[in-house]
Amino acid sequence: VQVVRMDLQVVAKLSQNEEYFDKLTHSVLYLFAVDKKLLESRGSLILRQLSIHIKPEKIYVALAKNLATEKVH
Question: With a threshold of 0.85, does the pTM exceed it?
Answer without folding.
Answer: no
